[in-house]
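Collaborator request log, item 7. Partner lab (contact: R.S.) asked for a structural prediction of Bifunctional protein FolD to inform their binding assays.
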Amino acid sequence: MTATILDGKATRDAIFDDLRKRVTELAERGVTPGLGTVLVGDDPGSHAYVRSKHNACKKLGMNSIRRDLPADISQAALEEVIDELNADPACHGYLVQLPLPGHLDEGAILERVDPDKDADGLHPVNLGRLVLGKPGSLPCTPLGIITLLRRYDVPIAGARVCVVGRGVTVGRPLGLLLTRRSENATVTLCHTGTKDLAAEVKRADIVVAAAGRAGLITGEMIKPGAAVLDVGLTRTENGIVGDTTPEVREVAGHLAPMPGGVGPMTIAMLLSNTVEIAERGLSA
Ligand SMILES: Nc1nc2c(c(=O)[nH]1)N[C@@H](CN(C=O)c1ccc(C(=O)N[C@@H](CCC(=O)O)C(=O)O)cc1)CN2
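Returned to partner:
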Protein backbone atom coordinates (compact mmCIF):
# COMPACT_ATOMS: atom_id res chain seq x y z
CA MET A 1 0.00 0.00 0.00
CA THR A 2 1.18 3.53 -0.71
CA ALA A 3 -0.55 6.27 1.22
CA THR A 4 -2.75 8.89 -0.39
CA ILE A 5 -1.00 12.18 0.26
CA LEU A 6 -2.91 14.80 2.25
CA ASP A 7 -1.64 17.71 0.16
CA GLY A 8 -1.39 20.78 2.37
CA LYS A 9 -0.30 23.11 -0.42
CA ALA A 10 -3.21 22.24 -2.73
CA THR A 11 -5.67 22.47 0.16
CA ARG A 12 -4.20 25.82 1.26
CA ASP A 13 -4.60 27.15 -2.29
CA ALA A 14 -8.27 26.07 -2.37
CA ILE A 15 -8.82 27.81 0.99
CA PHE A 16 -7.10 30.94 -0.34
CA ASP A 17 -9.53 30.97 -3.31
CA ASP A 18 -12.44 31.00 -0.88
CA LEU A 19 -10.81 33.62 1.37
CA ARG A 20 -10.14 35.90 -1.63
CA LYS A 21 -13.91 36.01 -2.27
CA ARG A 22 -14.63 36.83 1.38
CA VAL A 23 -11.99 39.59 1.34
CA THR A 24 -13.64 41.08 -1.77
CA GLU A 25 -17.04 41.00 -0.06
CA LEU A 26 -15.59 42.75 2.97
CA ALA A 27 -13.94 45.37 0.73
CA GLU A 28 -17.35 46.08 -0.84
CA ARG A 29 -18.53 46.91 2.66
CA GLY A 30 -15.56 49.21 3.27
CA VAL A 31 -13.38 46.84 5.31
CA THR A 32 -9.95 45.52 4.36
CA PRO A 33 -8.95 42.78 6.81
CA GLY A 34 -5.54 43.42 8.36
CA LEU A 35 -3.14 40.90 9.91
CA GLY A 36 -0.34 42.04 12.22
CA THR A 37 2.82 40.12 13.09
CA VAL A 38 5.23 40.69 15.97
CA LEU A 39 8.64 39.13 15.41
CA VAL A 40 11.43 39.37 17.97
CA GLY A 41 15.03 38.51 17.05
CA ASP A 42 16.84 37.00 14.08
CA ASP A 43 15.81 33.34 13.92
CA PRO A 44 15.86 32.54 10.17
CA GLY A 45 12.98 30.04 10.43
CA SER A 46 10.73 32.54 12.21
CA HIS A 47 11.63 35.22 9.66
CA ALA A 48 10.68 32.84 6.82
CA TYR A 49 7.29 32.03 8.43
CA VAL A 50 6.51 35.70 9.01
CA ARG A 51 7.50 36.51 5.41
CA SER A 52 5.12 33.77 4.16
CA LYS A 53 2.30 35.27 6.25
CA HIS A 54 2.78 38.73 4.72
CA ASN A 55 3.10 37.30 1.19
CA ALA A 56 -0.14 35.40 1.71
CA CYS A 57 -1.91 38.61 2.86
CA LYS A 58 -0.74 40.33 -0.32
CA LYS A 59 -2.04 37.47 -2.48
CA LEU A 60 -5.48 37.73 -0.85
CA GLY A 61 -5.75 41.53 -0.96
CA MET A 62 -5.43 41.86 2.82
CA ASN A 63 -3.49 44.53 4.69
CA SER A 64 -0.56 43.47 6.80
CA ILE A 65 1.27 45.23 9.58
CA ARG A 66 4.76 44.09 10.49
CA ARG A 67 6.61 44.80 13.73
CA ASP A 68 10.16 43.39 13.62
CA LEU A 69 11.93 43.96 16.92
CA PRO A 70 15.49 43.43 18.22
CA ALA A 71 16.34 40.23 20.10
CA ASP A 72 17.25 42.22 23.25
CA ILE A 73 13.96 44.15 23.47
CA SER A 74 12.69 44.54 27.04
CA GLN A 75 9.42 43.07 28.29
CA ALA A 76 8.02 46.59 28.81
CA ALA A 77 8.92 47.74 25.27
CA LEU A 78 7.38 44.61 23.75
CA GLU A 79 4.24 45.13 25.82
CA GLU A 80 3.99 48.65 24.38
CA VAL A 81 3.99 47.21 20.85
CA ILE A 82 1.23 44.78 21.87
CA ASP A 83 -0.82 47.66 23.33
CA GLU A 84 -0.44 49.61 20.06
CA LEU A 85 -1.70 46.70 17.98
CA ASN A 86 -4.59 46.17 20.40
CA ALA A 87 -5.59 49.79 19.78
CA ASP A 88 -5.01 49.87 15.99
CA PRO A 89 -8.37 49.62 14.14
CA ALA A 90 -6.60 48.60 10.88
CA CYS A 91 -5.28 45.49 12.63
CA HIS A 92 -8.16 43.01 12.90
CA GLY A 93 -6.02 40.13 14.13
CA TYR A 94 -2.37 39.57 14.94
CA LEU A 95 0.10 37.10 16.34
CA VAL A 96 3.35 37.06 18.25
CA GLN A 97 5.72 34.74 16.41
CA LEU A 98 6.96 31.99 18.74
CA PRO A 99 9.31 31.14 20.28
CA LEU A 100 10.30 34.41 21.95
CA PRO A 101 13.85 34.89 23.29
CA GLY A 102 14.33 33.33 26.73
CA HIS A 103 14.51 36.60 28.72
CA LEU A 104 10.91 37.45 27.79
CA ASP A 105 7.85 36.18 29.66
CA GLU A 106 6.04 34.50 26.76
CA GLY A 107 2.91 33.71 28.79
CA ALA A 108 2.52 37.33 29.91
CA ILE A 109 2.97 38.58 26.33
CA LEU A 110 0.38 36.17 24.92
CA GLU A 111 -2.05 37.17 27.68
CA ARG A 112 -1.65 40.86 26.83
CA VAL A 113 -2.98 40.32 23.29
CA ASP A 114 -6.64 41.38 23.03
CA PRO A 115 -8.39 37.94 22.88
CA ASP A 116 -10.72 39.28 20.21
CA LYS A 117 -7.70 40.12 18.01
CA ASP A 118 -5.94 36.81 18.67
CA ALA A 119 -5.49 35.46 15.12
CA ASP A 120 -3.46 32.51 16.46
CA GLY A 121 -6.11 31.20 18.87
CA LEU A 122 -3.45 30.77 21.55
CA HIS A 123 -4.69 33.35 24.09
CA PRO A 124 -5.77 31.70 27.38
CA VAL A 125 -9.25 33.18 26.93
CA ASN A 126 -9.59 31.52 23.51
CA LEU A 127 -8.21 28.23 24.81
CA GLY A 128 -10.82 28.52 27.60
CA ARG A 129 -13.54 29.24 25.04
CA LEU A 130 -12.43 26.08 23.22
CA VAL A 131 -12.73 24.03 26.42
CA LEU A 132 -16.20 25.47 27.06
CA GLY A 133 -17.37 25.14 23.42
CA LYS A 134 -17.86 28.92 23.05
CA PRO A 135 -17.05 30.84 19.85
CA GLY A 136 -13.54 32.30 19.49
CA SER A 137 -10.42 31.97 17.34
CA LEU A 138 -9.18 28.38 17.18
CA PRO A 139 -5.47 27.42 17.20
CA CYS A 140 -4.18 27.34 13.63
CA THR A 141 -2.24 24.08 13.37
CA PRO A 142 -4.92 21.91 15.07
CA LEU A 143 -7.60 23.58 12.94
CA GLY A 144 -5.45 22.95 9.85
CA ILE A 145 -5.18 19.24 10.75
CA ILE A 146 -8.96 18.85 11.05
CA THR A 147 -9.56 20.82 7.84
CA LEU A 148 -7.09 18.61 5.96
CA LEU A 149 -8.69 15.38 7.26
CA ARG A 150 -12.14 16.63 6.26
CA ARG A 151 -10.96 17.73 2.81
CA TYR A 152 -9.79 14.16 2.10
CA ASP A 153 -12.86 12.54 3.70
CA VAL A 154 -10.84 10.76 6.38
CA PRO A 155 -13.49 9.69 8.95
CA ILE A 156 -13.00 11.49 12.27
CA ALA A 157 -16.21 10.62 14.15
CA GLY A 158 -15.62 7.45 16.16
CA ALA A 159 -11.95 7.28 15.13
CA ARG A 160 -9.27 6.44 17.66
CA VAL A 161 -6.72 9.25 17.40
CA CYS A 162 -3.24 9.09 18.87
CA VAL A 163 -1.66 12.53 19.26
CA VAL A 164 2.05 12.32 20.04
CA GLY A 165 3.22 15.52 21.73
CA ARG A 166 1.53 17.68 24.37
CA GLY A 167 2.70 21.13 23.25
CA VAL A 168 0.42 24.14 23.61
CA THR A 169 0.40 25.04 19.89
CA VAL A 170 -0.51 21.56 18.59
CA GLY A 171 -1.03 18.53 20.86
CA ARG A 172 -3.12 19.86 23.73
CA PRO A 173 -5.56 22.02 21.75
CA LEU A 174 -5.85 19.32 19.06
CA GLY A 175 -7.07 16.88 21.71
CA LEU A 176 -9.73 19.41 22.74
CA LEU A 177 -10.84 20.05 19.15
CA LEU A 178 -11.08 16.39 18.21
CA THR A 179 -13.18 15.52 21.25
CA ARG A 180 -15.83 18.20 20.54
CA ARG A 181 -19.25 16.78 19.65
CA SER A 182 -18.79 17.99 16.08
CA GLU A 183 -15.67 15.81 15.68
CA ASN A 184 -16.48 12.98 18.13
CA ALA A 185 -13.09 11.29 18.02
CA THR A 186 -11.56 9.36 20.91
CA VAL A 187 -8.15 10.82 21.66
CA THR A 188 -5.08 9.47 23.41
CA LEU A 189 -2.52 12.20 24.10
CA CYS A 190 0.97 10.67 24.29
CA HIS A 191 4.10 12.33 25.64
CA THR A 192 7.53 11.54 27.03
CA GLY A 193 5.92 9.85 30.04
CA THR A 194 3.88 7.40 27.91
CA LYS A 195 4.91 3.84 28.85
CA ASP A 196 4.38 1.98 25.57
CA LEU A 197 4.21 4.52 22.73
CA ALA A 198 4.32 1.84 20.02
CA ALA A 199 1.22 0.11 21.44
CA GLU A 200 -0.71 3.40 21.68
CA VAL A 201 0.17 4.35 18.09
CA LYS A 202 -0.67 0.85 16.76
CA ARG A 203 -4.27 1.11 18.04
CA ALA A 204 -4.93 4.39 16.26
CA ASP A 205 -6.94 5.08 13.09
CA ILE A 206 -5.36 8.55 12.95
CA VAL A 207 -1.86 9.36 14.21
CA VAL A 208 -0.64 12.94 14.66
CA ALA A 209 3.12 13.06 15.20
CA ALA A 210 3.93 16.38 16.84
CA ALA A 211 6.77 15.58 19.23
CA GLY A 212 9.56 17.29 17.27
CA ARG A 213 11.73 14.14 17.43
CA ALA A 214 13.02 13.06 14.02
CA GLY A 215 11.98 9.53 13.04
CA LEU A 216 10.17 8.78 16.32
CA ILE A 217 7.26 7.05 14.54
CA THR A 218 8.28 4.08 12.38
CA GLY A 219 6.35 2.08 9.80
CA GLU A 220 5.95 -0.95 12.07
CA MET A 221 4.21 1.18 14.72
CA ILE A 222 1.40 2.13 12.29
CA LYS A 223 -1.82 0.16 11.86
CA PRO A 224 -2.11 -0.63 8.12
CA GLY A 225 -4.43 1.89 6.47
CA ALA A 226 -4.27 4.48 9.28
CA ALA A 227 -4.04 8.19 8.49
CA VAL A 228 -0.75 9.74 9.63
CA LEU A 229 -0.09 13.47 9.93
CA ASP A 230 3.53 14.45 10.44
CA VAL A 231 3.83 17.81 12.19
CA GLY A 232 7.35 17.42 13.63
CA LEU A 233 10.04 19.54 12.03
CA THR A 234 13.76 18.96 12.49
CA ARG A 235 16.29 20.78 10.32
CA THR A 236 19.29 18.63 9.35
CA GLU A 237 22.26 19.05 6.98
CA ASN A 238 20.19 17.16 4.40
CA GLY A 239 17.08 19.30 4.79
CA ILE A 240 13.91 19.07 6.83
CA VAL A 241 12.87 15.77 8.38
CA GLY A 242 9.65 14.96 10.20
CA ASP A 243 8.74 12.74 13.16
CA THR A 244 7.96 9.78 10.87
CA THR A 245 10.30 7.49 8.94
CA PRO A 246 9.94 7.01 5.14
CA GLU A 247 8.43 3.48 5.50
CA VAL A 248 5.32 4.99 7.09
CA ARG A 249 4.22 5.94 3.57
CA GLU A 250 4.08 2.21 2.64
CA VAL A 251 1.83 1.29 5.58
CA ALA A 252 -0.47 4.29 6.05
CA GLY A 253 -3.68 4.82 4.10
CA HIS A 254 -3.24 8.61 4.15
CA LEU A 255 -0.16 10.67 4.93
CA ALA A 256 0.31 14.39 5.55
CA PRO A 257 4.05 14.55 4.90
CA MET A 258 6.66 16.86 6.36
CA PRO A 259 7.14 19.14 4.47
CA GLY A 260 4.04 19.88 2.38
CA GLY A 261 1.30 18.59 4.68
CA VAL A 262 0.13 20.40 7.80
CA GLY A 263 2.59 23.37 7.67
CA PRO A 264 0.93 25.23 4.77
CA MET A 265 -2.44 24.73 6.50
CA THR A 266 -1.22 26.66 9.56
CA ILE A 267 -0.88 29.84 7.51
CA ALA A 268 -4.20 29.25 5.71
CA MET A 269 -5.98 28.96 9.08
CA LEU A 270 -4.26 32.10 10.39
CA LEU A 271 -5.62 34.12 7.49
CA SER A 272 -9.01 32.46 7.81
CA ASN A 273 -9.13 33.43 11.52
CA THR A 274 -8.23 37.04 10.60
CA VAL A 275 -10.95 37.28 7.93
CA GLU A 276 -13.42 35.79 10.40
CA ILE A 277 -12.52 38.43 13.02
CA ALA A 278 -13.07 41.18 10.41
CA GLU A 279 -16.45 39.64 9.45
CA ARG A 280 -17.44 39.38 13.12
CA GLY A 281 -16.68 43.10 13.52
CA LEU A 282 -19.19 43.94 10.79
CA SER A 283 -21.94 41.77 12.21
CA ALA A 284 -21.42 42.94 15.83
N1 LIG B 1 2.64 32.45 16.97
C1 LIG B 1 2.95 31.27 16.40
N2 LIG B 1 4.21 30.86 16.39
C2 LIG B 1 4.50 29.65 15.82
C3 LIG B 1 3.49 28.87 15.20
C4 LIG B 1 2.16 29.35 15.25
O1 LIG B 1 1.19 28.70 14.76
N3 LIG B 1 1.93 30.56 15.85
N4 LIG B 1 3.82 27.70 14.52
C5 LIG B 1 5.22 27.46 14.19
C6 LIG B 1 5.74 28.21 13.01
N5 LIG B 1 4.79 28.39 11.90
C7 LIG B 1 3.94 29.44 11.91
O2 LIG B 1 4.07 30.40 12.62
C8 LIG B 1 4.87 27.57 10.73
C9 LIG B 1 5.69 26.45 10.72
C10 LIG B 1 5.83 25.70 9.55
C11 LIG B 1 5.15 26.07 8.40
C12 LIG B 1 5.34 25.36 7.11
O3 LIG B 1 4.70 25.66 6.14
N6 LIG B 1 6.28 24.43 7.07
C13 LIG B 1 6.66 23.78 5.84
C14 LIG B 1 8.10 23.33 5.94
C15 LIG B 1 9.01 24.25 6.68
C16 LIG B 1 10.00 25.01 5.88
O4 LIG B 1 10.06 24.85 4.65
O5 LIG B 1 10.77 25.74 6.52
C17 LIG B 1 5.83 22.52 5.63
O6 LIG B 1 5.43 21.89 6.61
O7 LIG B 1 5.63 22.20 4.46
C18 LIG B 1 4.33 27.17 8.42
C19 LIG B 1 4.19 27.91 9.59
C20 LIG B 1 6.08 27.86 15.37
N7 LIG B 1 5.79 29.19 15.78
